[in-house]
């Protein structure tokens, strides 16, 4: 088994065939693949969650929250990898910069029969459990009401609600994420001449090792 960074084109078809949401975002912070001699058998997409969700998880440093937004694998009979939790733990420990992203978040959808077993085995902690509306598009594919930085579901059809369990993994004590990032040299730096869609000045995070 080889766990490596991947390009979107390498794993898109895997998500389309085997994930309930049948796709991934065009932009990700990290994208990893598990490769076996037969090809790629699992993939993991990481990106910052929507601002409101990030603030809900970590009010003092929402900019330090990274979400496992998609995880997918071929059926167990089609791969040698037994436990998806193994490559997930490797990413969390060695491949994601936890000085920049001290807080990880993900969700298990009980409406799809997900129990969160993979997250339990990887050291995540269950936190908030809630009911959320669920939608499908014209092709019957599950879709999120939040996409591409905009909320809205005018083009989607409601299929009721599902119980969603939130899972979190912290590399620091809760409430200490802002100090954690500062202690590791991360500073907010303005991007000259650029604005967010809201009109606010754009910024990025830069690490100073001095």
Describe the protein.
This protein is of the alpha+beta class and 210 residues long. The chain is built from 5 helices and 12 strands. The strands form 3 sheets. The chain has an 8-stranded mixed sheet with strand order 1-2-3-4-5-10-6-7, sandwiched between helices. The chain has a two-stranded antiparallel ribbon with strand order 8-9. The radius of gyration is 18 Å and the shape is globular.
Which helices and strands, and how do they pair?
Blueprint: E1 2-5, H1 8-18, E2 30-36, E3 39-47, H2 51-57, E4 65-73, H3 85-95, E5 103-109, H4 117-121, E6 125-136, E7 142-143, E8 146-147, E9 150-151, E10 157-170, H5 177-183, E11 186-195, E12 201-207
Parallel strand pairs: 4-5
Antiparallel strand pairs: 1-2, 2-3, 3-4, 5-10, 6-7, 6-10, 8-9, 11-12
Q: Tell me about the biggest sheet?
A: 8 strands, mixed
The pLDDT mean sits at: 88
Query: Which range best describes the helical content: under 10%, 10-25%, 25-40%, 40-55%, 55-70% or over 70%?
Result: 10-25%
Q: Compute the gyration radius: what is it? A: 18 Å
**Ends distance:** 38 Å
Q: Which assembly state applies to the chains in this document?
A: single chain
Report the order of strands and helices: EHEEHEHEHEEEEEHEE
Uncertain spans? 146-152
- How large is the count of helical segments? 5
Beta strand %: 35-45%
